[in-house]
Every structure is written in C-alpha cells, then in structure tokens.
Write a structure and sequence with these properties.
About 20% of the residues lie in helices and about 30% in strands. By secondary structure, it is α+β, with helices and mostly antiparallel strands.
Length: about 230
C-alpha cells in the first residue's frame, strides 16, 4: 500500500540517514500489526510497502501524480523502525559497455558509504537531483544540506545532461518519477564527505558518481535551485 507519514514520523525520518539520493528504506512495524514490514520512503513523506506489488505502486504514483497520491493516501504511524542500508538491496547487474562509453558511466568500485571520509576542498560543487521542489533534505532556512544526505558531483551531473542519460537509471532511484530539480551545494573545506559509484538497485544499472554527507554541510553552502 501507499501511505502518507504522520508529522511525528516525518520528523523521525528526517533524523535518519538516506539509503540513496532522495529515498530511505526502513524495516518497521505498522500501528495495529505485530510483524515487521519493509518500506520505501520518498522525501520523508510518502511511505510505500516494498513487497511483491511495489512495481504497481510505482506506476500508480507516476500515473496519478505524487501530490494527488499523497493527498488521498491514509496516514501511517510506525514503531520499532530500523534503517536498511543499500548493501541489503543491491542487485548483481553487469553494466553494458555501451552505457559506459556512450553515457559516461562507471562500473565496479563501491558505494559512497563503503569508502573513507575526505574533506571537501571548498571549491568543488555538488548537485542534489530531485523530483520534489520542496526536497526535505535541503535546509532552506540555513542554506545547507541536512545530515545523512546524498548528492552527485557537478561534473557527473553535467555528464548525465551532456549524454542525455536517464538520471533515474544512472543513480538507481526506486521511484521512477521524473527528475525535475537540481540543488547546488558548495561545501566548506572543513565539511566531510564520502564518494563512490552508484551500485545497481531497483532494476537500474547505476554507474553514476555519488557523494554522502554524514553530517550534512555548513550553513550557507546551498546556493542555487534550478530546473533539471
């Protein structure tokens, strides 16, 4: 099923890290039930059962629209929920050579959270891609990226655009919604990040570059929002 998270649940989800850019996967017990279920959460608001009908739910969201689905979905409260890392949902897929050469993607390597932390250089720009103009991982008041959030690099974003690549497949996103917005972030030299290669998931090949900011970024590092 598809649910809208209650406000208390939204606040708790914002305190948890993302599983990938724009989404979280959690195991939790639904109010009134006794066994744990797996859910995908979009933008900390829309909660979708990750079960045998997941592809049907994805098509429903695309066909009816995110806002319409959210408005008509029942509220959900969860308890005893746990973060699910992406290593538990990865798929074995071989990236075909044409996508490597024609789309500028990478193969092999490991995801960002499997690699060492490094300091930003204070000059490099990162871009968060989103289907949502009010992306909850952007702190618009303090102009920064919130803790536990993913981006790609500006260079990889430009490569995706230049080769007319599909960002949903490149960054292995679960919702298949059209990417409409780009949020630009320039971390300070004392902000830390991990970077890696997006691994296959949700029937997508990945192969883009990702960056993970465990502690987010400093104030006044988010500086621009544009259409994708």
């Amino acid at each position: 099923m598809i649910f809208e998270a209650r406000q208390s649940l939204k606040s708790q989800l914002l305190e948890m890290p993302e599983t990938g850019m724009g989404y979280q996967i959690i195991d939790a017990i639904q109010e009134g039930k006794y066994s744990s279920q797996r859910f995908v959460v979009y933008n900390t608001e829309l909660v979708v059962n990750l079960d045998s009908d997941f592809d049907l739910y994805k098509r429903k969201i695309i066909n009816e629209g995110y806002s319409s689905i959210k408005a008509s979905s029942p509220y959900l409260e969860l308890k005893d929920f746990q973060f699910v890392s992406r290593s538990k949902i990865l798929e074995f897929r071989v990236l075909v050579e044409s996508k490597m050469t024609e789309k500028g993607r990478f193969t092999g390597g490991s995801g960002a959270t499997d690699n060492k932390e490094e300091y930003a250089n204070g000059e490099e720009i990162f871009v968060r891609l989103s289907a949502y103009e009010d992306d909850k991982r952007i702190d618009f008041d303090n102009k920064k990226l919130k803790s536990g959030s993913y981006t790609t690099t500006y260079v990889d974003y430009q490569t995706c655009k230049r080769y007319n690549d599909d960002p949903v497949d490149r960054y292995a996103l679960p919702n298949n919604e059209e990417i409409k917005w780009a949020f630009y972030i320039q971390p300070k030299s004392y902000d830390k990040l991990q970077r890696g290669i997006v691994q296959p998931a949700f029937g997508h090949d990945g192969g883009g570059i990702e960056a993970y900011f465990k502690n987010g970024t400093s104030n006044n590092t988010f500086f621009r929002k544009t259409a994708y």
